[in-house]
Specification:
The protein has nine helices and 14 strands. It is α/β, with parallel strands linked by helices.
Length: about 270
């Protein structure tokens, strides 16, 4: 198996500072968080940003400031969100790509998201994908339902662009595919040869999903965006705490942890 790539979704757009007082907000706080996580074993930092009041934003200057602050502290791969917050405009979701991050997330279909809808019509998905490839950004296809795999493969096939295919199975969002460990087998079996994938279980589904992904040769995403409680009744202290737990799970299974350089090699990032 390849060494385990650990992605940290450290901020998100839905969690508030009232719900999680340790949420990193300023560029310096995010950079410090990324550096600690990288030292513990993370190799990708999935980036949302907040304004000075802690509100989610897709402001390009804020993305630039946070990305640069991270780069000054660590060589972790910075992966921009294009999902943003529910309700963000198409233009806002696309704008930070002009900064040419190494990677960006791309959800390839719409899905119920609690009482709301995470809206990703085919026209927007194609536009985001085209812009990524024009700028040399590697997409990570975010998969909330099995049909999104077919959408992603059709997108890549029809485009004529040749690049490494990497997927992230997001399981347990209310309205999407539940965090069933057997769902990982099903989804992974429908990826083409040579593709790589990671998985995250939202909330209480995180641990069984992470353990299953490690055992199957996949990779793992963790972080405050996905996991609020470390155990029943106990809030997560930090993203570092979550990374250390995934490292421990991987060590128990005898699997090595990828460095940022190894993650770039596995994902075909030059």
């Amino acid at each position: 198996m390849d060494p385990l790539i650990i992605t940290v979704a450290g901020i998100g757009a839905e969690l508030t500072t009232e719900q999680q007082p340790n949420l990193p907000i300023s560029p310096q706080e995010v950079a410090e968080d990324a550096a600690r996580c990288a030292e513990a074993g993370a190799s990708i930092y999935h980036l949302h940003v907040r304004d000075d009041d802690g509100r989610p934003t897709m402001d390009v200057q804020r993305f630039a400031a946070v990305r640069d602050a991270i780069a000054n502290r660590t060589d972790v791969v910075v992966q921009f969100t294009t999902g943003g917050a529910l309700g963000d405009s198409d233009e806002a979701r696309m704008a930070p790509l002009d900064l040419r991050p190494e990677m960006a997330s791309l959800t390839t279909g719409s899905v119920n998201f609690g009482d709301e809808v995470f809206w990703n019509p085919a026209t927007l998905v194609r536009a985001l994908y085209t812009r990524m490839r024009e700028l040399g950004v590697l997409p990570e296809f975010e998969i909330f339902e099995a049909g999104m795999i077919a959408n992603a493969l059709a997108l890549e096939s029809d485009s004529g662009w040749d690049h490494h295919l990497h997927f992230d199975f997001v399981l347990g969002v209310p309205g999407g595919m539940p965090a069933w460990p057997e769902a990982i087998d099903f989804l992974a079996d429908h990826l083409p040869k040579g593709a790589t994938w990671s998985a995250t279980g939202i909330g209480r589904g995180h641990l069984p999903v992470a353990e299953k992904a490690i055992s199957l040769g996949g990779h793992v995403r963790t972080g405050l965006e996905d996991v609020r409680y470390f155990e029943p009744g106990r809030l997560v202290d930090s993203n570092l705490q979550l990374v250390e737990r995934v490292v421990s799970l991987s060590e128990k299974q005898g699997r090595e942890i990828a460095t940022a350089a190894e993650a770039r090699s596995i994902l075909g990032i030059s």
